Every structure is written in C-alpha cells, then in structure tokens.
Amino acid sequence: MQKFLEQLRWYILGLLFVSTIFIWYAVIREDRQGILTIAFLDVGQGDAIYIEAPNGNQMLIDGGPPKAILSALRKVMPFYDRSIDMLLVTNPDKDHIAGFIDVLANFKVNAVVEPGTDSPTAIYTELERTIAEKKLPKILVHRGQIIWLDKKNSIGFQILFPDRDISGLGTNDGSIVGKLIYGNTSVMFTGDSPEKIERYLALLDGAKLKSDVLKVGHHGSRTSTSEEFVGFVAPTYAVISDGKGNNYGHPHQETLATLQKFGVKFFRTDALGTIVMSSDGNLVNFRTR
Q1: From the centroid of its chain, how far is CA 26?
Q2: Are 237 and 212 in contact (CB under 8 A)?
Q3: What is the three-class DSSP state of 60?
Q4: What angle do CA 259, 261, 262 make, to 5 degrees?
C-alpha cells in the first residue's frame, strides 16, 4: 500500500508538472504581442495561406489540393487549436478548394467567403454540400467590402475584385483579389487572376494598389503578374506558391523576369517550403519552416 501511495504521489506530481508546462505554453503562444502572421503553406501545386491576427482571429485563404493542408497547418498552428474563424475561396478550382474538405472535417469553422463563380467538378459539389450540411454562413464578397480580422488593430482584408455578378465568368477570371492592410504594411492577394483583370484593377486603382508584398497570381504562370500590375503594386517582396516539379512549369520564366525587372525579392514554396511573414504594422519579416 505504501508503495502504491508513493507511486501515486509521483504520478500526480508529474501530471501537475506537465499541466503547468502546457498552460505556460498556451499563455506564451496566445500572446502575439501585436504581430500579424501570414503563412504561405507548402501544399504542393496549389494555394493555401493561413493568417492569424494579433487578437487571435484566423483566416485560411484557399485550402490547396487534396491531402496536404492538415500537415501544413500543424506546422503553424498550436496542437490544441481546432478552430479556424473563416475560410476564403479565391476561386473554386481543385488546387484551391480540395483541402477545405479536410479542414471542415477536422476544424470548427464559423464562415466561408466565396467569389460567386461555380465549378462543375465533383470536389466543388462536395465542398458546397459540406458547407450546407454544417449550416455555415456563406459570404459573397464585392468590391469595397472589408473583412475585419482585428478591428482594434485596424487589420482588414479589402476586396478589390469582384465588382459585379461574376457567376458567368471563368474561375480564374472571377478570382477574389484583395489587399490585407495592417498599419503601414500591406499584402496583395490575387488568386489566379489573369492579366486582363490585373490591368482592369490598375485602371481603377492605380497607385492605390501599392503593397509591400505580392502573392504572385496563378502560381507564377505567365498568364498573370503583368508588368503594368507589378509596377503599380511596387512590392518589395513576392511569394510564389507552387509545387516542386509541377507539370505546368510554374513559375514561368517570364514571371520571374518581370519580378527581377522591378527589383522584387521573391520566395518560392517549391524551393523553401512554408514561408512565414510577420508584421508589426510597420515592418515585415520573412522566415521559412
């Protein structure tokens, strides 16, 4: 009996020790010290961007291709966090939405943002069915709308496109284009938006497109990242989300040449893996994982 009590005492002490470590880990992890984090996830040939605001609100822009998102999220989210506030679909192509099926099966999600385009694919039908079954609010965005991630710190995702009913447009043409702003820093997200939409936005917004970071459109395809658009965005940095050895030859040399022409330092997920950007509202920093 004495031996049992001694073992029980050590077991309880060990449990208390582990619990204390866990609590302090959570406290430290949840103290973001005013930092906005954006992780361009390495999901192969596709897009998936995890955003976490200083107040803890999270948004996942695109979910990438099948069976890649969960392992990528584990690298940037604490193991105890099983919720994501918002999913944003830039366009309903498989390499942008397939991973959302896994996310919805494993995380509590509060809302889904969509551009308004449709897709005849089975994966899109499954995603829409899952959203309906879970009774999640769906938000169709429009130009001028701001999705607030952190109102206290004035962190908002400003919708630049679509500016109309795009149900009749192709999936790439109808991609959501938006600018995430935090203090004096900003990031331009373009989905798979092609050059003609880039030029249209250059005509509408001109110098207002200026951003510190450009998420390069369509995985670095030559069909996006026009010189006119890059000139107005005038980014210091760019991120290309593409898969190693992909069948499309992304990123295309024309896109890399455009970035180099404007002196833009670029990062590629196929070469570096997940790329994490942080901002305190004044400066941006990058690291890889």
Answers
A1: 23
A2: yes
A3: strand
A4: 70
Dig out the tokens for 22 from the structure.
């866990």
Give CA separation, 278 vs 11, 150, 260, in Å: 41, 15, 23
pLDDT of 32 > 80? The answer is no
**Per DSSP, which regions of 76-141 are E strands?**
83-88, 108-114, 138-140
Which ranges of 58-134 does DSSP label H, i.e. alpha helix? 69-74, 94-106, 122-133
Q: E strand or H helix at 21, and its extent?
A: helix 2-30
In angstroms, the CA 97 to CA 46 distance is 9
Token code pair at residue 142: 């429009």
CA 289: distance to chain centroid?
Answer: 16
User: What tens digit of pLDDT does each residue of 92-132 get?
Assistant: 999 999 999 999 999 999 999 999 999 999 999 999 999 99
Q: pTM for the whole thing?
A: 0.89
Rounded CA separation 169/154 (Å): 32
H-type alpha helices, the chain: 2-30, 69-74, 94-106, 122-133, 195-205, 227-233, 253-261, 269-272
Euclidean distance between CA atoms 173 and 196, whole angstroms: 8
- Type of residue found at 167: S
The helix/strand count (H/E) of the chain reads as 8, 15
CA-nearest of 184, 188, 170, 173 to 279 is 184
Nearest to 62 by CA among 198, 174, 191: 191
Other Cβ atoms within 10 Å of 82 Cβ, number? 10
